[in-house]
Structures are given as structure tokens and as C-alpha cells.
């Protein structure tokens, strides 16, 4: 993708019509999305003949709906209007997603030199980036200094000395520990300063003449308890006050990531918004680092059934099947291991029938045939689903699909066993607003 012109720093303003269309019809565009995704999946798999195709033509592939990313952005604006999102690049560094989020005026949360470089190459102003990694590689800090990426987090004294040596002009965020016991992926065992250490850290920063501009926290990925946000906001207030006593003028609160794309987002956002207003006056800038919220629901993956083994239970007289797909936990299903996800298999193509979005693909259908679903590597850990049921008999050469595969999937795929870690994305766009921004 060619780099594009430097983008303005100002917020892209959503039209009143965009927000209006969201009111009352939260599924706005969703029907069109199904149509477009279905069409993309169908035309691709129908064009592949496994008996004659080139090596890799039948590889798994994604369909990414940029319109869904756009709808999630509208949802964010509607529910967390005060909070400026800085997309967590690690979650899915897809170039088209990054482009759209850039056009929407979002910032970016980067954790390495490569991520910073990818965002800067798009023409993004370094002020829109936060280097949100409290334990940084020295050469990366030098790179950030040279590139002008000033905002960065820290949570320990050594990092302050490192910053003093390499980037004394940095704008630092003190990352504090949170109670993440209710979240899916706990992060507080690894990062965050406990509240009994923040005073010492701030004093050290003061004596080193470093600029601490705010507090950051992360309640853990897949956070399910809104109370965790309230507690973290209260703790951040405590540290803001501590900092003020030491002469710092903190101006930004970073509420991190962990926002889920499911129905729990709205109640969670309401609780967070209320506590932000309770504890932080309007002049305090509030940013966040959502990752999964933006992309989880935007990507669907299609996988080819490369082999099948039937298993007969002589006592029960039943037959079940083991299906082997051309993608697994060492590939795009790495989310099962790293992110505790449970992708739901559905039938895309069974013989000549294309069943995308049909009841027979696995939705609520009475279970008739039992399956377990495996990846292509030689490792026993490579299992996608240990038990599921379809009403149809799936054969070698058929296709399955899995929805909600946008977060922590292809970014953590490996090349183990010689299987490819690069997979195609077919893009669709179910929202005219997003198409216009991307000039599609
Ligand atoms: C991973 C991460 C995020 C994104 O988390 P999500 O659960 O995808 O929202 C944000 N900030 C930091 C510091 C992270 O490590």
C-alpha cells in the first residue's frame, strides 16, 4: 500500500446523519454486511477446485468488513464521547483497518519500533501515537525520541533512569496496577505500579526533571466487570492528586483497553463515563487504547477441510468425525491459546451447497452429527473445537467459516510445521461513510 498524504490531527467529525442512523437501529448496516461477506466468501470458494488448483490456492482466507470497524467507531463516539480512542495496533495491524482508523481521526497505541514505524509510514503525526509499553527496549526508545513519539508509559524506577538517559523530553504516563481479576487476559501480574509505590516514582521523576503528564491503566483484556473501571478511575484520581502535590500538572488520563464488542459495552461505557465525570473535570483529556473492540467482529475466516477421519463407537453404534482444517492454533486460531477465544465453526460450503448465514450451517440446528475440529500441524494441541455438531455430513473439500476472528488472530500466527502464516484478506465495506473516507 502506498503511503498516503499526511493526515490532519483534528478529529474527523461524524455527520449528524451518521449518528442519527445509529439511533434506534443498532444493527444499521448489519444486513448489508451479511450480504457482502456472504458474496465474498461464496465467490472465492466457488472459484477453487481442490483437484486442480495451484499449491496454496485453497488456503484459509479472511473477509474483513471495514464498515463494521466504522460502525464500532460510531458506537464508541455515542457511548464514550469524551474518550479519544488510540487503537492498540498489536490487536490486528491490518493496513486497511489502520487507514480507516487514521481517517476517522483516532490515535494509535504502539508497543514496539515496528508498530510505531508502520503508523508513522501512513503519514500519522507522532503526537497521535502513545508508546504504551512500560518496559521498553533501549534502541526503541532512541528510535521513538528521534521520530518524535513523545507519549510513553512507565511503571518502575529503572524505566525513569532509562528515559532520563535516552529521551528526557518524553511525556510520561504513570501506569498503575488495577484489579484485573474479572478480565479474560490478566495484565496486572506483568505491568503497573501499585499505589504504595507511585509517590516514590513521582518524586524520582521530579528529581530527574522528567515530565509526567498523566496516568494510564489497563483493566485487562476482555474485562467483564465495570466496577474494575470505577476503581481504576478512583485510583488514577489519587495519583493525579499525589502528582499535583509534587508540582506536576497532569493533564491526561489513559483508561487503556479491554473493551469488548458484545452487548456489555454499553453498560460498561455508561459506568466509565459517569465515573470519569465524577472524578475528572472536563479540562482533563481522556484517551483510551481499545483493540478488540474495533476489530473482533469485523473479520470472518474461511477454512478448507483437508482431511476427515470417521470414529465409530461400537457400543453406542454412532459415528462421529474428526475434521482437519488448513488453519489451526499455530496459525490464525492462535487466539484460542493466547486470547482464550472459542471460535464457533459453521458450514460455509457442503458439497455444492453454500450455507453461509443459513440455519443449516450450525445455527440453533438440532445436532445430528458430532465433530471435532483440528488444525493441520502434527501437534496434538492443535485443536479448534473438541466437540461440535452439524446437521450435515461434512466431507473433505468442504469449507467451514468462523465469525468474530478479527482480534489477536493473524497477528500471532506462526509458521510452525511449514504452514504459511500469511493469509489473504478480501475486503468489503458495508457502510458508505467508511467507503467515502477510504475512497473505495
Ligand atoms: C493489549 C493492550 C491493549 C488492547 O487491549 P484490548 O483488550 O484489545 O482492548 C491496550 N493497551 C495496552 C497497554 C495493551 O497491552
Question: Helices, strands, pairings?
Answer:
Layout lengths: L15 H7 L7 H17 L14 E5 H14 L3 E6 L6 H9 L3 E4 L2 H9 L7 E3 L6 H10 L3 E4 L2 H10 L4 E5 L7 E3 L12 H10 L3 E6 L4 E3 L2 H20 L6 E3 L10 H15 L5 E4 L3 H4 L3 E15 L4 E8 L8 H5 L7 E5 L2 E2 L14 E6 L8 E8 L8 E4 L21 E5 L3 H7 L2
Parallel strand pairs: 1-19, 2-3, 2-11, 3-4, 4-5, 5-6, 6-8, 8-10, 10-11, 13-16
Antiparallel strand pairs: 1-12, 7-9, 12-13, 12-18, 14-15, 14-18, 16-17
Bound molecules: pyridoxal-5'-phosphate.
Pfam family, one: Orn_Arg_deC_N
EC number: 4.1.1.17
Pathway: Amine and polyamine biosynthesis; putrescine biosynthesis via L-ornithine pathway; putrescine from L-ornithine: step 1/1
Summarize the structure.
The protein has 440 residues and is of the alpha/beta class. 31% of the residues lie in helices and 22% in strands.
Spatial extent as radius of gyration: 24 Å
Biggest sheet descriptor: 9 strands, mixed
Overall tally of domains: 2
Termini separation: 14 Å
CATH architecture descriptor text of the largest domain: Alpha-Beta Barrel
| Structural class category | alpha/beta
What do we call the CATH topology of the largest domain?
Answer: TIM Barrel
Which consecutive residue ranges, at least 5 long each, have pLDDT under 50? 1-26
Binned strand content: 15-25%
Q: Name the hetero compounds present.
A: pyridoxal-5'-phosphate
CATH superfamily of the largest domain: Alanine racemase
Q: What oligomeric state do these chains adopt? A: single chain
- Total of DSSP H or I helical runs spanning 4+ residues: 13
How many β-strands, per DSSP? 19
Average of pLDDT: 90
Instruction: Using the alpha-carbon principal axes, give the shape.
Output: elongated
Organism: Pleomassaria siparia CBS 279.74
Cofactor: pyridoxal 5'-phosphate
GO molecular function: ornithine decarboxylase activity
GO biological process, one term: putrescine biosynthetic process from arginine, via ornithine
Amino acid at each position: 500500500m502506498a503511503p498516503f498524504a499526511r493526515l490532519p490531527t483534528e478529529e474527523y467529525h461524524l455527520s449528524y446523519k451518521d449518528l442519527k442512523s445509529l439511533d434506534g437501529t443498532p444493527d444499521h448496516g448489519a444486513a448489508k454486511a451479511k450480504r457482502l461477506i456472504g458474496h465474498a466468501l461464496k465467490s472465492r470458494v466457488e472459484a477453487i477446485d481442490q483437484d486442480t488448483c495451484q499449491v496454496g490456492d485453497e488456503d484459509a482466507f479472511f473477509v474483513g468488513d471495514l464498515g463494521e470497524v466504522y460502525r464500532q467507531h460510531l458506537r464508541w463516539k455515542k457511548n464514550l464521547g469524551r474518550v479519544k480512542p488510540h487503537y492498540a495496533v498489536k490487536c490486528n495491524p491490518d493496513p486497511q483497518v489502520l487507514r480507516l482508523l487514521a481517517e476517522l481521526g483516532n490515535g494509535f497505541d504502539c508497543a514496539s519500533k515496528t508498530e510505531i514505524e508502520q503508523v508513522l509510514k501512513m503519514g500519522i503525526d507522532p503526537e497521535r501515537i502513545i508508546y504504551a509499553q512500560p518496559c521498553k527496549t533501549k534502541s526503541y526508545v532512541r528510535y521513538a525520541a528521534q521520530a518524535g513519539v513523545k507519549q510513553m508509559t512507565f511503571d518502575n524506577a529503572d524505566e525513569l533512569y532509562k528515559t532520563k538517559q535516552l529521551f528526557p523530553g518524553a511525556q510520561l504516563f504513570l501506569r498503575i496496577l488495577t484489579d484485573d481479576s474479572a478480565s479474560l487476559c490478566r495484565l496486572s501480574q506483568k505491568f503497573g505500579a501499585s499505589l504504595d509505590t507511585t509517590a516514590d516514582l513521582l518524586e524520582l521523576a521530579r528529581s530527574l526533571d522528567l515530565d509526567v503528564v498523566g496516568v494510564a491503566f489497563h483493566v485487562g483484556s476482555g474485562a467483564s466487570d465495570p466496577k474494575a473501571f470505577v476503581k481504576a478511575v478512583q485510583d488514577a484520581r489519587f495519583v493525579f492528586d499525589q502528582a499535583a502535590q509534587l508540582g506536576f500538572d497532569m493533564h491526561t488520563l489513559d483508561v487503556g483497553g479491554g473493551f469488548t464488542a458484545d452487548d456489555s459495552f454499553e453498560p460498561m461505557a455508561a459506568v466509565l463515563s459517569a465515573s470519569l465525570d465524577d472524578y475528572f473535570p472536563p479540562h482533563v483529556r481522556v484517551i483510551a487504547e481499545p483493540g478488540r473492540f474495533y476489530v473482533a467482529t469485523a473479520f470472518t475466516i474461511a477454512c478448507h477441510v483437508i482431511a476427515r477421519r470417521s470414529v465409530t463407537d461400537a457400543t453406542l453404534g454412532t459415528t462421529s468425525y474428526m475434521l482437519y482444517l488448513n488453519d489451526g492454533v499455530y496459525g490464525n486460531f492462535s487466539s484460542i491459546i493466547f486470547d482464550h477465544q472459542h471460535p464457533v465453526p459453521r458450514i460455509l460450503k457442503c458439497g455444492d451447497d453454500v450455507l453461509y448465514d443459513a440455519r443449516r450451517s450450525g445455527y440453533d440446528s438440532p445436532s445430528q452429527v458430532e465433530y471435532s475440529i483440528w488444525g493441520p500441524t502434527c501437534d496434538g494441541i492443535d485443536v479448534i473445537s473438541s466437540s461440535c455438531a452439524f446437521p450435515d455430513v461434512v466431507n473433505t473439500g468442504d469449507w467451514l467459516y468462523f465469525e468474530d476472528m478479527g482480534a489477536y488472530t493473524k497477528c500471532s500466527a506462526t509458521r510452525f510445521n511449514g504452514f504459511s502464516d500469511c493469509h489473504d484478506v478480501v475486503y468489503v465495506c458495508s457502510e458508505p461513510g467508511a467507503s467515502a473516507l477510504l475512497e473505495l
